[in-house]
Amino acid sequence: MHIFIMRHGEAGFHAFNDKDRPLTARGEDQAEQQGLWLNEQTVPDLILVSPYLRAQQTYQLARQPFKQSIPVETWDNLTPYGNAALVADYLDTLNENIQSVLIVSHLPLVDDIVTELGVHHPISFYPATIVHLEKQQDTYRLVEVKFPTA
């Protein structure tokens, strides 16, 4: 199984609360660009996304290149301080028909998920960064880190 863990694009700070922070124009460009790259790698069988506005906007823009409909689960555990162990456990329950998953979330959770999956490489999760992991047997390995150029 291939896991693509993406931090949301660059977000502004002008919102009533953290969950309502929208993407900036640059963040929108980053999400679109990363979606084009992701479409060249795979079309996810499942998308897991934080309910926060900037993550929702990121996934909407990143999924535009995909031609087919993809199941999306908005999950409260994917907010910035969600539980990485729950995410890892959920990934372990997915059936063999799921070959590729995109997770769109926030710092520090995206970094915590990578660590929880047993990948111990220093990764700088700049806005819209995607980390591609591959699961083989019960082990995850780092395939690639894709930074946006926008």
Question: Notable features of this structure?
Answer:
6 strands, globular, Rossmann fold, six-stranded mixed beta sheet
Summed up, what is this model?
By secondary structure, this protein is of the alpha/beta class. The protein is 30% helix and 23% strand. It has helices at residues 25-41, 53-62, 84-93, 109-116, and strands spanning 2-7, 46-49, 72-74, 100-105, 130-136, 139-146.
Give a verbal description of the structure.
The protein is an alpha/beta fold. It has one domain (2-146): Rossmann fold (3-Layer(aba) Sandwich). The chain has 4 helices and 6 strands; from the N terminus they run E-H-E-H-E-H-E-H-E-E. It has helices at residues 25-41, 53-62, 84-93, 109-116; strands at 2-7, 46-49, 72-74, 100-105, 130-136, 139-146. Strands 3-2-4-1-5-6 form a 6-stranded mixed sheet, with helices on both faces. The chain is globular. The model has no long low-confidence stretch (mean pLDDT 96).
Under the CATH scheme, which architecture would be assigned? 3-Layer(aba) Sandwich
Helical percent range?
25-40%
Number of helices: 4
- The class by helix and strand makeup works out as alpha/beta
Topology, number of strands: 6
- What's the CATH C level? Alpha Beta
Keywords: Hydrolase
Protein name: Phosphohistidine phosphatase
InterPro entries: His_Pase_superF_clade-1, His_PPase_superfam, Mito_Ser/Thr_phosphatase, SixA
GO molecular function: protein histidine phosphatase activity
